[in-house]
Design goal:
It contains 13 helices and 16 strands. The protein is of the alpha/beta class. It has an eight-stranded mixed sheet, sandwiched between helices. Bound molecules: adenosine-5'-diphosphate, aspartic acid and magnesium ion.
Length: 450
């Protein structure tokens, strides 16, 4: 293990000069932070996605590029317009403009990745300059030279062994002498094409670099003071936890706690790297430590919620007392790269919830429905959300689930998954009731006097 920390700052932490200055102070105050991973300034990735959406004509595209340019030039002016950074910024904006001209021919996922990468390239250029106001040795580093992925544009799969050896060879020597500022979210495939890791992917980038560098800690600086008992935007009484285990945090991230990209914990778990989550707005207020070993293992730790779930029910009388039906259903889903989240079965039907990424307008691509229909009846429902209660030994103690069902009695539970993991119980509910359910569960589990 190397005695260094990787720190990641999200979009709101890069929102403007004041926010960047706060983050620079965090980095400069902690000499163990050697690698800094940043997101695009908040709102910029959304604007770049709009640019690529096909819903913009040429003037609308130009207006978006002008807005993005103005935003970054304003930050540069507040830094004091250093000449070298001004040149780099104008080069990046020029390249964004030129690349966006190709959108008049339509947008491919490959072109979208190129365009999205400018968000992080711009913010990291400016943030390294903000650090340089105090520490001249700060180095900007192109993450694409180490963040090697496959060629699936829009959700590149990081190649962990290659990332680790590139990080050891290129990044480690550099960060021993300098603070290195690099981009989250973006990578490159074996041919050198720019790729991205999927929305919110900067957390994952930072974790992969921490793994590759065998860092001691990974610090995730965001807009909340740690991992809360549930999303504080949904339940105002939610509170930050002092510590949670890797398993608990991985479940929360998987089931929708946006504070961590779903894959963030895996590199940390592989390399046993402690993860700290704190607020860049209030860095001295503490935060949450995510570790392998924690002091307590309560039955209920936190609640996560994930919107826009698709429920697919496949039914066939020929399933009765036969074998191979499930295998055939899953073969079709696997062929179309559809990942299944939850599953329940009855005598003649199987209900599955799908990863929202796999869903299209109708919830499931028609071609998949057609193939499944050759095998069985297919029903697709939308407007659902997944609520997950995360904790420990949930399946092993009398009364643990009963307490949840008491709270949930007024609501329609479309599907329940329980028993496969000690760490969660999941409910598929009506989207319109999801926030109420989260608040009711939170009141019962985390706001009662003990
Ligand atoms: P960043 O831009 O720093 O990556 P995100 O917006 O991706 O920040 O994630 C932070 C947000 O995650 C918070 O503002 C909060 O609304 C949301 N969130 C959801 N669940 C949780 C949770 N359990 N704890 C803390 N924040 C959560
Ligand atoms: N900028 C990217 C996004 O908005 C990645 C990130 O912020 O983590 O999804
Ligand atoms: Mg995020």
């Amino acid at each position: 293990m190397n005695d260094l920390n990787v720190a990641k700052f999200g979009g709101t932490s890069m929102a403007d000069f004041t926010a960047m200055k706060r983050c620079a102070n965090i980095v400069l105050a902690d000499s163990t932070i050697r690698v800094v991973v940043v997101s695009a300034s908040s709102g910029v990735t959304n604007q770049l996605i709009e640019l690529c959406s096909g819903e913009c004509d040429r003037p609308a595209r130009q207006a978006i590029i002008d807005r993005i340019s103005e935003h970054h030039r304003t930050i540069l002016a507040e830094i004091g317009n250093p000449a070298q950074a001004a040149t780099t910024l104008e080069q990046l904006l020029g390249r964004l403009n030129a690349t966006a001209q190709q959108l008049s021919e339509g947008c491919t996922l490959q072109l979208a990745d190129q365009i999205l990468s400018f968000g992080e390239l711009l913010s990291s250029t400016l943030f390294s300059e903000v650090i340089r106001l105090t520490d001249q040795n700060c180095q900007w580093f192109d993450a694409r030279t180490v963040m090697i992925t496959d060629s699936v544009h829009g959700s590149g799969e990081p190649q962990t062994a290659q990332i680790a050896s590139a990080a050891q060879a290129n990044l480690l020597p550099l960060c021993q002498q300098n603070i290195v500022v690099t981009q989250g979210f973006i990578g490159s495939d074996a041919q050198g094409n720019t790729t991205t890791l999927g929305r919110g992917g900067s957390d994952y980038s930072a974790a992969l670099l921490a793994e590759g560098l065998q860092a001691q800690n990974l610090q995730i600086w965001t807009d909340v003071e740690g991992v809360y008992t549930t999303d504080p935007r949904i339940a105002t009484n939610a509170y930050a936890m002092k510590e949670i285990s890797f398993c608990e945090a991985a479940e929360l991230a998987t089931f929708g706690a946006k504070v961590l990209h779903p894959s963030t914990l895996w590199p940390a778990i592989r390399q046993n790297i402690n993860v700290f989550v704190g607020s860049s707005h209030n860095p001295t207020n503490g935060g949450t430590w995510i570790k392998q070993q924690v002091d307590s293992a309560p039955n209920y730790r936190a609640i996560a919620v994930r919107s826009n779930q698709t429920l697919v029910t496949v039914s066939s009388l020929s399933m009765l007392h036969t074998h191979g039906f499930l295998a055939r259903v899953f073969t079709i889903l696997a062929k179309h790269k559809i990942s299944v989240d939850l599953i329940t079965t009855s005598e003649v039907s199987v209900a599955l919830t799908l990863d929202s990424v796999a869903s299209t307008n109708g919830g499931l691509a028609q071609v998949v429905i057609d193939e499944l229909s050759e095998l069985c009846e297919v029903k697709v429902e939308q407007g659902l959300a997944l609520v997950a209660v995360v904790g420990n030994k949930i399946e092993r103690q009398a009364g643990v689930s009963a307490r949840l069902f008491n709270v949930l009695s007024p609501y329609n539970l479309r599907m329940i998954c329980f028993g496969a993991s000690s760490h969660n119980i999941c409910f598929l509910v009506e989207q319109a009731e999801a926030n109420d359910i989260v608040c009711s569960l939170h009141r019962e589990l985390f706001e009662q006097e003990s």
